[in-house]
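Issue 218. Parser rejects a valid record. Input:
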Amino acid sequence: MKKVILLCTMLGALLWAVEPWTGTIDVGPWWVKDNAGVQQWHQYRGICVLNDSVAWVVGDTGEVYKRTDGLHSHAWTHVTTLPVGYTNYHFNDVFFINADTGWIVGEYKHSAGTHDTLRYRGVIYRTTDEGESWIPQTPSLSYIPYPTPFLKVQFVDGSDGYITCGNGMVIFTTNGGAEWYQTTSDPWNDTNNISVWYDGLHVLNSDSLWVSGDAFGIMSKSTNRGDTWTSYEPNEFKQTYTFPSGTNTPYDTRLANFDAQYGSMNSGFGLGVGSNLL
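Output the parser choked on:
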């Protein structure tokens, strides 16, 4: 499927479209195709809009694009300043705390037709000079199952940040990514926890965060940096299906929950398969 980048532009305080034959009024933003300078036929997985001037987009095979001339400039700059070998990775997410400092996370891409033992291995890159240069911050610690993809990244400031992963894991840093640690407990205390990929992450402060995972529709929150979690399986996601024979997956699974955004630890939204918005 051809992927495009859409730019949401609000014209004035509100945009009014009047339909004279009914007298009704539609209020809302216009969406426009906005992929000038971007490689076509790529899947773009992560976006970070820092302000009205600066935005970042990342995707498959190490694709990274930056815009600095404003959201209305309709021109993206292809960033190729990452360390040698970065095109071997699919980048899943990007997050900047200011114009200078940001992180990209992703996973090793699979080579078609080969048995690639590196597939899904996670990667982390950090920049402190607006993307002019990047340094690897991928942890090589025994607690990370091999291979484990890194899916979402968010930071509170230049020190405290979180990354959600595959294999049921969440990792965090307190020093800007120089060191990464696994949370004391996993979000979902279940025998199938390793099967969950946490595709949703919303960090409220250094200690408090929500994560959401695929495969079982899990939504979990922690208020103590992952020492303990409260997990939920919304009824809307408790529909099971069985993997086809030959997939070597012995269990039934639930509908996926792909993302979550929260205004506080007690209120927010979850988005998942089956047209489910909670």
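Fixed in the parser; the record now loads. The chain has a mean pLDDT of 76.
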